[in-house]
Amino acid sequence: MRNLRRRNNQEKALSEINVTPLVDVMLVLLIIFMVTAPMLSMGIDVNLPRVKSKSVDVTEEKLVLTINESKEIYINKTKLPLGELNTKLEAIFSNRIDRELFLRADRNVPYGFVVEVMAEVRKAGVDKLGMITEPPEARK
What we know:
Elements: H1 2-14, H2 20-40, E1 64-67, E2 73-75, E3 78-80, H3 82-93, E4 100-105, H4 111-123, E5 128-131
Parallel strand pairs: 1-4, 4-5
Antiparallel strand pairs: 1-2, 2-3
Helix pairs in contact: 3-4
């Protein structure tokens, strides 16, 4: 009778799940994700002009056209020449319902070049063209 009771107690103890190692692994994965997530959102470095404007909702995926100081054009992170911009945008927007594009241009890029890029964007059939800027620095 005693052997039977011991056996039942041992079986009962073995049926419980030890969650401590699982929690340890999950915490390590959470820390790794928190450290690497900011590194994934790096983009092309441009010096944006500073103006007062309403902030843009960034919860959904946006298509951003960037012009850096060297007059290089990027769609999100893909570099392409000005001559291919129209056809690339037409291909991108052929499958999209909203034809919205955001433009980031370095403040040292000549105005004429930015207007030339904007003309190509309009030819591609973009309905909404937003300009991305930085808020002005507080004056002391």
